[in-house]
Amino acid sequence: MDEYNDLSQKPEEEKPPRRPGADLYEWLQLFLGCVVAAVLLFNCVARLTRVDGSSMDNTLQDGEIMLIWSLGYTPEQGDIVVLNKTPAVLAGWPGPRAIVKRVIATGGQTVDIDYGAGIVYVDGYPLDEPYILEEMYLPYSSTMQQTHWEVPEGSVFVMGDNRNGSTDSRDVQIGTVDTGYILGKAVLALWPMDRFGTV
User: Alpha carbon 23 to chain centroid distance?
Assistant: First the structure.
């Protein structure tokens, strides 16, 4: 029986041998790519931050870890924001520090507080604030006795949801805060797991 050779089939080409260390190089490339992507993500788009203190009780609790959104963010009334520092170093603070607060008013608005009624007014209208921890009282501190503010353009007026335990824009040492200090808006509580969910 004659042998039949199928000339249309080409012999398999042998792959060149891999260079020593090629696998390690590829893994390093992948790892470095992931690191660069993570750095860009957590510096330009979103980042993680930890709540320090009780000024946002019960909305946020001390030690809670949140995801904050930075990319293209413009502060709006009612947002919970993280400020990367304050203009003042207050008693007990080793230096300017990041704080978490709620935006009460933005540039061009006015804020008035009636401590007798426990009501905050923005542009003359009372805020509906179901999120505050308890009824707000007149602070004891002499630096927090003011009751009327005009928010400059490019700034925000912020307060903690735990009004009786928050150092915020009511304090003349802090006042309204330039939006350049805002790291972003808190969008998601991540830890502890029983607190997981949107903010």
Answer: 39
Tell me whether residue 101 is one of the annotated catalytic residues: yes
Find out whether 56 and 101 touch, Cβ atoms under 8 Å.
yes
Q: What's the total number of domains in the chain? A: 1
Q: Is residue 187 in some structural domain?
A: no
Rounded to whole angstroms, the Cα distance separating 196 from 99 reads 20
Whether residue 26 is contained in a domain is answered as no
Give me the catalytic one of 15, 55, 142, 185.
55
CA distance 101 to 82: 7
Domain containing residue 130: CATH number:
2.10.109.10
Within 10 A of 6 (CB to CB), how many other CB atoms are there? 5
Tell me which of 10, 15, 54, 101 is the catalytic residue: 101
161 vs 54: CA distance, rounded Å: 9
Question: Which residues on adjacent β-strands are paired with residue 146?
Answer: none
Per residue in 57-114, pLDDT (tens digit) is 888 888 888 888 888 889 999 999 988 755 555 555 555 567 899 999 999 999 999 9
Active site residue 15: no
Nearest-CA neighbor of 173 among 68, 88, 72?
A: 88
Give the predicted TM-score (pTM) of the model.
Answer: 0.72
The gap between the terminal CA atoms of the chain, to the nearest Å, is 82
